[in-house]
Amino acid sequence: MSAADNRPAALVTGSSRGIGLAVAEALAREGFAIAVNGPVEDAELAAAVARIATYDVPVAAAAFDVAAIGGHDAAFDAIEQKLGPLTTLVNNAGVGVLRRGDMLEVSEESWDRCFSVNTKAMFFLSQAFARRVLARPRSSQFYSIVNVTSSNAVAVAEQRSEYCASKAAASMVSKTLAVRLGRENIAVYDVQPGLIATEMTAPVIDTYRERAAQGLTLFPRVGEPAEVGKLIASLATGRLPYTTGLTIPADAGMLVPRF
Fold first, then answer.
1. For residue 150, which of 89, 78, 84, 198 has the smallest C-alpha distance?
2. Residue from 18, 5, 15 nearest 227 by CA
3. What is the pLDDT of residues 94-148, one digit of tens each?
4. Full-model pTM
5. Is 189 helix (H, G, I), strand (E, B) or coil?
6. How far apart are the first and last CA of the chain?
């Protein structure tokens, strides 16, 4: 694809499965060219690329570790060589804790892993994307960064304290990005999924389903990745005009204060 085609193009990190793949699909339905990201070139990434290709949009495999900060520019170069200039970055890649348990037993390794991927990588990938966008002429397309954090940026999950801390920090990164990039007409959003049925939540999803049915969420069910995908596609296409810096809980009202 050439820049002259004026097609929006998005990099969705962590998009070989789960919420990321659902986001990539939703954007492909909107006509976006898509860079599908996973940490390595493997069968899962290849399958995700093939799935996105069925939407008849340009698609590229982008195998790189988001936590390898020094590789960001090279990754963007390779993606844009295939898809043309990016208009959109969806920071979805994330990791959970190495072991659930007492925060007094949390290891430095688990803390550093959560912050390296969930916070630091998001910050520096957004920085590299913004620098790239600002360094060249822009089309009339809508430009945005959408960060996928978590309801645990707000609500404590005692057995995953390091994860909560990393997501709270990531949420603040979203706000600071929105302030810095607002004057550049680049919108920034923070989407905070709640109880979503993914590979990451599979070990505890039955418990989540029970708690949702018992009233933890206002809609008495867990969410699906496709629902988060549709929400992010609405943001990335500019269908919420004159907005930036928004924090959007995709949690079926789970965090609504109640008596």
1. 198
2. 18
3. 999 999 999 999 999 999 999 999 999 999 999 999 999 999 999 899 999 999 9
4. 0.96
5. strand
6. 54
